[in-house]
Amino acid sequence: MLLAWHQASTKTCEHPLQWLDLMAGCGIRGLRWGLEAAGAHSMPPEIVVNDADGDRRPLLEHNLKPLAGATCSSVPAETLLCQAQLEGRRFDLIDLDAFGHPGALIQPVLQLLAPDGILVLASTDGRSPTGHDRPGAIRSFGAAARAHPASWELALRQHLGLLARQAWLLGRGLQPLMSFSDGRTFRLAVRLKRLLHPDEEATLGLLARCGTCGAQQSQPLLRLRNWSACHCPPEQGRWAISGPLWLGPLQQVDLLEELMASPVPVASATRRLLQRLQADPGGLGHVWSTAELAQRCGSGPPPLQRLVEALRTQGHQAWPSGVMAGQVRTDADLPELLQICSNLCGEGPLIGS
Q1: What are the backbone angles phi and psi of residue 200, rounded to the nearest 5°?
Q2: Is the pTM of this model over 0.90?
Q3: CA torsion angle for 329, 330, 336, 339 (degrees, to 10)?
Q4: Helix (H, G, I), strand (E, B) or coil at 179
């Protein structure tokens, strides 16, 4: 809803904004769009609210009655998308909140997004992109997904990698606006850009992790080469590689700041989420859980904020992960990271990793 408000308050156009809630349920999202966000634009948006369950049509029409510019329909999502394509219609904002993975709908949805339009996507497929259903990841994402301590982040990057590939097929660019999860549902908002940014293809790549020593590496597909050795003794390390996935930022920080300044009432839980995401742009894909670091150090978990500060003092980039609690995002190499953790926990220098 905040994204709808922001679009209405910032977009200048001579026609009403076009918003589509593709799988609406009872229609509460479209109602909130119309009541809380529409007033930010000079012209009321034209809102299409759809749910394939025809038995919900009377409820949809009843709930959307306060909105003069709302249209209710009860057809399968594929049918609505095909009809809109034949009519040459384009939407400025589409919400795709599917049960399971909405992969089959992504391409037709992107084709209906206007330039600089926003797609809000939700997926309840928690197994495939986190490495717990490898054949499912191949089917749904065209990618390998291996088990990883930062599994939610891996899943979000798998989704963004799929969205980027689908957008690039259309000659469009992709800009993630916000990415987060509660562990059961992965939620993303992306902007479809008219053109690709220079070198945007370098944001698609592979993420490798050694399950023995915990080392991590990443490489863009554009400049793929041999993997460097991990920190295990010779012949003992083994990389588990996931991807293709998105290696770029997960959040657009300046947009999150503007959303937090919105005049629209924001629930305290939503405000805390925005603050957490704002504090972590997600520009690095290397994330470690403090529990894993503690296990490797043979000590208790290091205080997360103190670890971030210590890493920054040593000249490294570091943030508390905005995606999963108790995890640190940093460009520090694993041996130095473990040494800093050990020092924070008062265990003295580490002999090895």
Answers
A1: -60, -30
A2: yes
A3: -30
A4: strand
